[in-house]
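Hi all, posting the design record for the shared folder.

TITLE: backbone redesign
STEP: 1 of 1
STRUCTURE INPUT:
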């Protein structure tokens, strides 16, 4: 089952950022699929670690582009990035402490964050580039 589908309105108009958005969605979908078949603690921790690292790297790229373009809403955008990273760290800590990751909750939280972020923060950034 696919958790997140790419939609054209997710595009921010910068090829490398849009490419990474698609890759992040693919990674999240791969984790979601893997949780359905392989739920060992080590496997889940490795996937969470990979998602965290990839998302962090993507956010660093996106924030660099925003700084270069002197984007006026960088602070708010970055704060939303930090909100997701905090959620992921909490999930990783819980997993390391022996909790079983609730993949439905995990998927729902990621889907909600990405859909909301792409449609609000990233859409605003895209509109600022068009000016």
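Okay, here is what came back for every position:
SEQUENCE:
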């Amino acid at each position: 089952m696919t958790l997140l589908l790419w939609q054209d309105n997710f595009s921010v108009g910068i090829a490398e950022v849009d490419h990474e958005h698609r890759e992040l969605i693919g990674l999240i979908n791969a984790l979601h699929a893997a949780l359905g078949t392989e739920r060992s603690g080590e496997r889940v921790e490795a996937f969470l670690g990979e998602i965290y690292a990839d998302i962090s790297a993507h956010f660093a790229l996106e924030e660099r582009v925003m700084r270069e373009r002197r984007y006026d809403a960088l602070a708010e955008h970055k704060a939303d990035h930090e909100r997701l990273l905090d959620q992921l760290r909490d999930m990783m800590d819980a997993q390391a402490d022996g909790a079983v990751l609730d993949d439905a909750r995990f998927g729902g939280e990621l889907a909600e964050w990405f859909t909301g972020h792409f449609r609000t923060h990233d859409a605003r950034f895209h509109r600022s580039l068009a000016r």
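COMMENT: The chain has a mean pLDDT of 86.
Let me know if anyone wants the other runs.
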